[in-house]
Write a structure and sequence with these properties.
heterotrimer, A mainly alpha (137), B alpha/beta (175), C alpha+beta (645), A: 137 residues, mainly alpha, 4 helices, disordered N terminus, disordered C terminus, B: 175 residues, alpha/beta, 5 helices, 7 strands
């Protein structure tokens, strides 16, 4: 049985063993020269989920695979693809799991309706708490 | 306030309870399966990873004969574990192509000298770009590809003894 | 023999908790009022015994007694004293013992100091408190005995997880536990009041200090946790809507709502059923949070070494407590009159809106956190719900909420007119509009949410101080100051959040010693890379000198630390704080050509996020002190009046 230890940040405490003999992909840790493109890439990288980690965006992860994904994102942005095209390209390969921004599909309708539903429920609950106009007197 | 509303919190809590109890009982995996199964192989072309074997491009996978595509690396421990099974598959007549993930020619050569070389082609994927194209999320992984170049199966993790007949059967069915 | 003594104390405390529950239950059920007198001393004795048990566990850790399994697994004799101490609760068993200890001591405090509540309600409350404790005692004694011995005795322990060896984290979990336990007391009060149908201002006033106390600890716990994750994880994020982060936010949201509704109940005798429900929900959220974190049912970056078996135990406790309380609510709340109705434009009206919006945010966070689990159970598809969803879904609601927060304190109780209100908030509105105009004019990189957040924060900062306007500052009650400071703190935190998300600049470089890096107005020089050694780690350290504009040159040294005992590596970011922001530098891996990955950020005004959190907690503390002092003075006055008569 494993004993519970608080907040083992597995990802920060990555294993010391070497994972690969090669340096990371060219744009894994290198920013794009164009600040606007870099900003678009970095916004997307923060919304893509690292495949090898517990729960981290590829922007935050030290895993080599996340570095390769960052490089792909930057290269594709530099080549003129839009962030949405890249996101969809990854969703086609890994499913909705790969994006932290759940796409609107029948499966996620309840999720996206939830906030509106909550507000309506709140208004309905509040309705009983306030005096009606007539008993103001 | 209507009576049933008062039972609503308990109802919602019961729903929560059922959801997490089910979640707790079903074993958890962190395996992300590729969504490319049933789809044609994406186009790619990789240089040779070692001198003794040619490189790999997507055209090599569309010659009418079903194949295994193994993704491996010399720095990957489970890849050592599955090496005997890959040799067994090759001896049983399976054609196995490989993608070496983020690896150097010297390391790959050492790895194959030591653990055997079941591969007819090895492409070097230095930046995981083909792995990403395939929807693969790690090493080792093995894809079954039919003669028309359609991906029919993805095996995640090392191939165990019991997987060998399954994979051979799939290759036969993929003809 | 210390371990055995601790275990005996624990068994005795459990026995007393059972007695405490039985006395209360039988006494209230059969109207045996002679039992009432006995329950107070029993509660005090239970609190004392469990505290002794916990103290003995601390002693075992401080002495590095390697014959105790828990010490072996979570400590080592060479560890600094602070971490031996913190190691006591840095594990499952110890933290559970800490939880039940605080709960026992809270029960003892109620027994000793609570005098204004009806005796019957008090007795029921203490019985409920004992009932909750019993579950934790059972958990400890049956499956998680912290005092278990180990044979043969190993020469040394396995050490505490390296990431826990940080002063911030040594005190983050207990802070949250104090909050959770405070909410458990509020829960017990709610159960007591439901059983005796005694939901009124006296109940609200008895419960309020506990809610306030819990809320202060939760605020501090989340603030500290956020800062800790920010500097320790090494990517400069302060909130990622991770399941574990959400698990700590949900009780805070519920407690914040409860804190405000309890004020309505105490002052205006309204929101009776609602307040009781919130008390139940607030404690539910702390139990659910504990469950989510320890069962490992959701994937988190803050991955506890989780254990589904323990998860089931907590889930069972959860079902008994929360299911029971909610059934009780459905059965008993019919007997509680609804209380006064309100005018829409009134202090009560604003507080109702506050409650509903906080609950809506709580609902959104709850649904978003659990949705992937439900989808996977139903369809076997994996889904991720992260920052884009939570920001979009809860951000606008939160902005409306803080706008109401600015207005609420300026409204009169009972009835107010919309016209005079508009008059009172004209200045904050002008400030907000002006700030919005300036921001749109001068900045380019801000998202709509940050833009509105920053502009609103400017207005709120002014509006939150308005309750002190034209008042005699020396006669203003302390709890009013508390409210003002807490609301001001929210505005401060909001500025920090909007600024961090809009104006952060990042520079990634592969640098050789001697290279210079420029980032905003910073000049960084990479001087050298050197190995350094600590008590139980070795590290590679990048020596850098940094300079802001033409200011002083300062040295910083980010590290890559390797811990020998656990074979793990951590990245120690170097942070340099100025009044207008923080420089954040992380050392990455080196390459074959002798270049090192260096990641740098300049985060303007990021520290305001946590200063805001501290202000909020400070405001809560002032309110708590003010309320307790007033309660004390009122009691003295009453006693004096009785004496004179």
């Amino acid at each position: 049985m494993r004993y519970l230890v608080f907040f083992i940040f597995l990802t920060a405490a990555w294993s010391a063993a070497a994972q690969t003999g090669l340096p990371p992909a060219p744009y894994a840790n290198q920013q794009l020269a164009d600040p606007a493109k870099e900003a678009a890439a970095s916004e997307l990288m923060e919304e893509l989920r690292c495949l090898k980690c517990q729960s981290q965006s590829i922007a935050d992860s030290n895993a080599p695979m996340a570095g390769d994904m960052r490089s792909q994102v930057r290269e594709r942005i530099a080549a003129g693809e839009t962030p949405e095209q890249i996101r969809n390209w990854l969703i086609d390969r890994y499913g909705n799991w790969v994006t932290y921004d759940p796409p609107v599909t029948p499966m996620t309708w309840p999720l996206w309706i939830a906030p509106i539903f909550m507000l309506i429920a709140a208004a309905w609950l509040a309705r009983g708490r306030f005096r009606r106009k007539k008993d103001k007197s | 306030m209507r009576r049933w509303v008062l039972w609503l919190p308990l109802g919602l809590f019961a729903l929560f309870f059922v959801a997490v109890a089910v979640g707790l009982m079903t074993p958890k995996d962190n395996i992300i399966e590729s969504k490319m199964i049933g789809k044609p192989m994406p186009a790619f072309s990789l240089p040779a990873a070692i001198e003794q074997r040619p490189g790999l491009s997507s055209n090599d996978l569309v010659d009418g004969k079903p194949k295994l595509l193994n993704i491996f690396a010399s720095w990957c421990v489970p890849c050592i574990a599955e090496a005997p099974q890959l040799l067994e598959l090759q001896q049983a007549g399976a054609e196995i192509h490989a993608i070496a993930s983020r690896d150097t020619p010297g390391d790959i050569a050492n790895f194959l000298n030591r653990w055997g070389n079941p591969y007819s082609r090895i492409g070097s994927d230095a930046t995981s770009s083909v792995q990403l194209e395939l929807g693969s999320s790690g090493v080792p992984e093995t894809f079954v590809i039919n003669g028309k170049g359609i991906i029919v199966h993805q095996h995640i993790g090392d191939i165990r003894k019991e997987n060998v007949p399954e994979l051979l059967k799939m290759l036969k069915e993929a003809e | 023999m210390i371990a055995e003594a601790g275990l005996i104390a624990l068994w005795l405390a459990a026995g007393l908790a059972l007695l405490q529950f039985a006395l209360g239950a039988v006494g209230v059920r059969f109207g045996r009022e002679d039992y009432y007198a006995a329950i107070r001393p029993v509660a005090v004795a239970q609190g004392a015994l469990v505290a002794i048990s916990f103290l003995l566990l601390i002693v075992l850790f401080l002495r590095s007694d390697m014959s105790v399994a828990l010490v072996v697994k979570n400590s080592a004799s060479v560890k600094p004293l602070l971490y031996k101490f913190a190691g006591t609760w840095g594990n499952h068993e110890g933290s559970m013992l800490l939880w039940v200890t605080v709960m026992g001591m809270a029960g003892a405090c109620i027994a000793l100091f609570e005098r204004s509540l009806k005796v019957k309600t008090l007795v029921t409350t203490l019985a409920a408190q004992a009932f909750i404790s019993l579950g934790f005692y059972a958990f400890l004694l049956v499956s998680s005995n912290p005092f278990e011995r180990m044979f043969p005795v190993p020469p040394d322990g396995q050490g505490l997880n390296p990431l826990l060896q940080d002063p911030g984290l040594a005190f983050h979990p207990p802070t949250l536990y104090f909050g959770y336990v405070g909410l458990s007391v509020a829960f017990s009060f709610a159960v007591g009041a439901m059983i005796t149908s005694d939901v009124g201002p006296a109940f609200a006033r008895a419960m309020r200090p506990w809610v306030l106390g819990a809320w202060i600890f939760l605020t501090l716990g989340i603030t500290a946790g956020s800062y800790w994750a920010y500097y320790e994880l090494g990517w400069g994020g302060w909130w990622f809507w991770d399941p574990v982060e959400n698990a700590s936010l949900m009780p805070w949201l519920a407690a914040t709502a409860l804190l405000h509704s309890v004020t309505v109940l105490a002052t205006r005798d309204g929101l009776r059923a609602w307040t009781v429900m919130l008390a139940v929900v607030a404690f539910s959220m702390s139990m659910i949070g504990t469950f989510l974190v320890r069962s490992g049912i959701l994937t988190s970056v803050h991955a506890f070494a989780v254990d589904p078996e323990r998860g089931s135990f907590i889930l069972a406790l959860l079902a008994i407590y929360i299911g029971g309380a909610m059934a009780l609510f459905a059965l008993r709340v019919g007997t509680v009159k609804e209380g006064t109705r309100f005018e829409l434009v009134s202090r009560e009206g604003a507080l109702v809106a506050n409650n509903l919006l906080l609950s809506a945010i709580l609902g959104i966070v709850f649904v978003g956190t659990l949705y992937p689990l439900v989808v996977e159970a139903l369809t076997n598809e994996k889904l991720s719900v992260g920052p884009p969803y939570f920001n979009l879904a809860s951000g606008p609601v939160a902005l409306i909420l803080v706008a109401i927060m600015a207005v609420g304190p300026l409204l009169r109780w009972r009835r107010d007119s919309a016209k005079t209100l508009l008059n009172r908030i004209s200045i904050p509105i002008v400030i907000t509009a002006g700030a919005l105009f300036l921001l749109v004019l001068l900045t380019t990189s801000m998202s709509v949410l940050s833009l509105l957040g920053m502009a609103l924060a400017a207005g709120i900062a002014v509006a939150s101080l308005a309750p002190l306007w034209k008042r005699n500052l020396r006669r203003t009650p302390l709890h009013t100051y508390g409210m003002v400071i807490a609301h001001f703190g929210i505005a401060v935190a909001l500025v920090g959040m909007a600024s961090e998300s809009s104006f952060t600049e990042e520079r990634l470089v592969a640098a050789k010693p001697g290279d210079e890096i420029t980032l905003n107005k910073w000049k960084l020089k990479f001087e050298a890379i050197e190995p350094v050694a600590g008590p139980n780690w070795t590290a590679l350290e990048a020596r850098m000198t940094v300079q802001y504009e033409n200011g002083n040159i300062t040295e910083i040294a980010p590290q890559n630390r390797m811990f020998a005992s656990a074979q793990t590596q951590t990245s120690e970011a170097a942070l340099l704080t100025r009044w207008n922001g923080q420089l954040y530098v992380v050392l990455g891996d080196g390459d074959a050509e002798g270049r090192w990955q260096i990641r740098t950020w300049w985060k303007p005004f990021v520290t305001l996020i946590w200063y805001g959190g501290i202000l909020v907690a400070l405001g809560g503390t002032l309110a708590l002190v003010g309320r307790l002092r007033r309660k004390y003075l009122q009691r003295k006055q009453k006693e004096y009046a009785e004496l004179v008569l």
